[in-house]
Amino acid sequence: MTRADLLFPSEPTQRAIARELYAQAKDQPIISPHGHVDPAILADDAPFPDPAQLIICPDHYVTRMLLSQGVSPASLGVPTLDGEPYETDGRAIWRRFAEHWRLFRGTPSRLWLEETFREVFGVTTAFGPDTADEVYDAIAARLAEPEFRPRALFERFNIEVLATTESPLDDLGRHAKLAADGWGGPGGRVITTFRPDNVVDPEFENWAGNVAKLAEMTGEDTATYRGYLAALRKRREAFIAAGATSSDHGHLTARTLVLDESEATALFEAHLRGDGDPDKAEAFRAHMLVELARMSIEDGLVMQLHPGAVRNHNRWLYGKHGRDVGGDVPQATDYVHGLEPLLSAYGNDPRLRLVVYTLDEDTFTRELAPLAGGYAAMYLGAPWWFLDSPEVLRRFRESVTESAGFYNTAGFVDDTRAFCSIPVRHDVARRIDAGFLARLVAEHRLPLDEAAETIVDLAYRLPKGIFRL
Amino acid sequence: MTRADLLFPSEPTQRAIARELYAQAKDQPIISPHGHVDPAILADDAPFPDPAQLIICPDHYVTRMLLSQGVSPASLGVPTLDGEPYETDGRAIWRRFAEHWRLFRGTPSRLWLEETFREVFGVTTAFGPDTADEVYDAIAARLAEPEFRPRALFERFNIEVLATTESPLDDLGRHAKLAADGWGGPGGRVITTFRPDNVVDPEFENWAGNVAKLAEMTGEDTATYRGYLAALRKRREAFIAAGATSSDHGHLTARTLVLDESEATALFEAHLRGDGDPDKAEAFRAHMLVELARMSIEDGLVMQLHPGAVRNHNRWLYGKHGRDVGGDVPQATDYVHGLEPLLSAYGNDPRLRLVVYTLDEDTFTRELAPLAGGYAAMYLGAPWWFLDSPEVLRRFRESVTESAGFYNTAGFVDDTRAFCSIPVRHDVARRIDAGFLARLVAEHRLPLDEAAETIVDLAYRLPKGIFRL
Amino acid sequence: MTRADLLFPSEPTQRAIARELYAQAKDQPIISPHGHVDPAILADDAPFPDPAQLIICPDHYVTRMLLSQGVSPASLGVPTLDGEPYETDGRAIWRRFAEHWRLFRGTPSRLWLEETFREVFGVTTAFGPDTADEVYDAIAARLAEPEFRPRALFERFNIEVLATTESPLDDLGRHAKLAADGWGGPGGRVITTFRPDNVVDPEFENWAGNVAKLAEMTGEDTATYRGYLAALRKRREAFIAAGATSSDHGHLTARTLVLDESEATALFEAHLRGDGDPDKAEAFRAHMLVELARMSIEDGLVMQLHPGAVRNHNRWLYGKHGRDVGGDVPQATDYVHGLEPLLSAYGNDPRLRLVVYTLDEDTFTRELAPLAGGYAAMYLGAPWWFLDSPEVLRRFRESVTESAGFYNTAGFVDDTRAFCSIPVRHDVARRIDAGFLARLVAEHRLPLDEAAETIVDLAYRLPKGIFRL
Lengths: 469, 469, 469
Description:
CATH superfamily of the largest domain in chain A: Metal-dependent hydrolases
EC number (chains A, B, C): 5.3.1.12
Pathway (chains A, B, C): Carbohydrate metabolism; pentose and glucuronate interconversion
Distance between the termini of chain A: 38 Å
Oligomer: homotrimer
Radius of gyration of chain A: 22 Å
Enzyme class (chains A, B, C): isomerase
Number of domains of chain A: 2
CATH architecture of the largest domain in chain A: Alpha-Beta Barrel
Catalytic activity (chains A, B, C): D-glucuronate = D-fructuronate
Family (chains A, B, C): Belongs to the metallo-dependent hydrolases superfamily. Uronate isomerase family.
């Protein structure tokens, strides 16, 4: 047994088949249609910072696990909002992390980090408290080399296309730079994604100000609902010109709602003048998903929906360190009733592509697979956040395939801001798919040749096709 | 490895045990206590239509999967309600289906179809776009032979008893014909099931008209609640005379409610005069489950409850093609609170047998197993629709056995209208049970002789006993 | 293959690793930080009663399964409340139980009983209807021997510490006796746990009377809210003096609520004067969890929360035989919103330790693991009741490890009143953990040496540390 068999079933029949299937998939180019890499990394192509700043401080999977055992985020280099000092010494952060390495046993973070150390940086020393400095120094040395600049790594990682995610208020300057360098623009290697939460959700911080900024950027009168929609359309055009093929929508629930123009206008205006409330805000968001689906049908952007994250559940963490540092948790999500209005309106329209994600694994069999397996417009996104792990990737296939098949799933997305972890994340998904397909073959449910075609579809052809790349 | 090992675990120890256990079960007669085969098929014993009309057009598992990839039901021969033309050329339908065969990889439909081709029709050619015509012609040729008439297949399938499902408004004429031919009636091979949804659910299309028709059929005054109950009792008697041993109830939720006669009368009358509303309808349905349980205790019909299907979720499909063509989806179901009133009233009464099904796998461990394992009247129905697949059949055993044991489960039901798929569906369940029991044996949790007795109980003795066949 | 491999995966690679890991864990002392053994058993150290009185009558896992197949609890020796006679002949009960032995195939009860017969009593005869008397006689003979007195078994079982559970109204007399004998008190082998449900839940039978009794015991004026809190604090002190290191809270839901003193006082007084209602009761319970968390921070008692049991769902059983005889069932539990107020207040305070249990397996991945993996105060309790079985113990690790790791789980608790089953319950957990870790090793996800350290942590070090033993 060698590391080559990582994550494969240990039963010899299945393992042999898994190896064979994985061999088909492992060298396929990476399609990364959804993620949060900062485009500045690739636009500037500057050397990465020290190993801790690169790998530990911005990874909330890591800092929340340490917080759960009483290690403060500030001591791990997470910036504070209140001016309290936080650790800035990379080596000190790295050692503190290494001391708690055992916490990550059995987690995907351990897998991603180990494989990143080994495959990206060529460090084969087993990581732990005793080897923390050795590993730190080795990675730091590599980071100083030109082959470890972002664009060089992008090539080495065999990424065909990487989509970042920007708000409509972003000027897309980094993407313009990428296009100028031959890296971006329509059909380019680095493209953007239209993510309008901060102008669509009336409860978003400074929503009214954001809507006003939209007017400045587009010349539309966003004090009116019609002008607001026109402004959104203009920004979508700008995003398409910057290479975007999809939009992304992070909502608390999956609720959708069909309102007529006068009702939508009334809600929009109520919020603008400060007369909103949570019910009105939910109704407006729900309606806007339908409105945005209509825009998708017009302009061809694939629509992604990410519902179910209770943002800033850990209020102390939010107060001290702000958003996106590990304080969110999942909640139960109702797709069957939530999506019904949208699907009734456009679910059978083949011009719409709606890729739906979940943080609620309990909906795999009961809701998501039956919906994706029954509406032409709907596809299942890969297991997302908290679920982007080997065990859940396997359960995802075990749960959704029987009702939705493989071809209503949209392929793996890494959804990460950790650029260096992209290869291992895709590799894990390919290995798990190889193992799942190997079991189908070993149980005589699928011939080997069809399994081999399927794994390449999952790794490459499906995401490329569904996301219109 | 050969196809004989279909669906068995590939680990050699478990596979060897699974083979041995399966050998005990595979030739047991089929008990099919719940399904939707049209009794006319067996009453008339006419040759089946062409392969597409037999296998593709009426199978909503197949047509919904194709719809989910943009292939219209009309192009697959599903009749339209609005007069728009639909495909009627069997071979054209068959080819269109074959072109999309890859969509069914990993689904139970693929398994059922492949095994039907092979085992029922003796066609061993691998199915796919290139062999579509060959397979079509081979099946068509068989269908013309007398050995492929319904009754001949029934004998070959080794079916001991098959229950169809009829509404109280059905005159049971086909069952009378079957009885006259020595095939039906009490203790016969083909029996009916009493399914009163269309007269129990005030929101059912034309409910008031159906209640009026009940009066015509029974001579009872169904304009009064007492007369309505008396009419239901008379129809139950007629069904019992036609061989029925069970009733079946398809409800949106599992809610039950104990009302006194005056409250029930008021709800009934409100609906009859058009003063109903959704809450009243839900209350009436909930109450009627308790009323029907009382009738079951009187007349001995085993009561089956199928809750949780959101009917006609896909409204476009419903508008164009009507009911039961793939537009339903599951929703979350609360059994613990929903069934409490009924179970409080009669759950410990051994005269009642209540077989409960689910579309919501998340209730297996939390609700269904603890209830079935704690009330004398309650049994667990086999995984139903969307869940009638190898992976879920396995998870069902893994989830419910520890709290409910094997003996509070009611055996496999195929729940199908696809007559030719009955053997393979039961075979899949037997194979999965063999694999599950093999693991218990391999992990030293159950001796082989007890596992061998158990698998015969599951395949034959339990459904026969629990459904009073 | 031998019984030594009980519950290990049958795949040879995994089995070999599981054996090696289990060898590390199997002789670790038992830490039993939560359970319901009657302390009188160990205080008095009297011989146990006959085998049926010891093993069958008080085990509601057993009596509910038999009830589910129509065997009355009274016929199994469960005392009646209404004076109706119930079986008292141990041998008759035992034979009746043995006749239905097949019902327990695949259940944890079978495993626990078989291993108890074999390992505790040295009875190797296969149990069943034919051997019922032989097994009964063998066990009865053993029970008469001094080596089978409770304290002797405690030593043989290698229990390091066992926590029982008492109400604040308990005078802790048995624990005083244990302390006097060198068995109890702080740091002792048998300690108590503070379980205040009967004085915290205004809907508990005789709550006002219990609150009054609290005044008698403490000298505080529990007619006032401040006095009530002071009385609770005094009882906690008494429990700590009797060795308690934790409190335990059985609530219908996981709801928590932060009220100010005047609001809490108003609710308390409303209930005392009989003006409560279900909403007020829920609010008071929810608030008290926060109040009790504050006390935990002060006095160091680890706080355990057991939500989600619908008590006395089977009302006939409750009416005839009372509480805790098998009539409870689980319900869905919302931890994400329920615990938010408590976690917002104290979730990041390392002085608080909150161990959360569940009856709702669907929350493992979606709620419990993300919360425990993101708050310093929260730990996951072992799968509880209905879930304390091999399949769920395995699914627990498969579901929570990826988000919470191993080190936010609090180790196995047996939660049992069946003293003789304690060793086998812990053994089952160790075997399942060995199997899970073996798979991680076999799939190259964890090195063997780390897995070996982890299994000892899970079996011994974690519960000992987290429960402050």
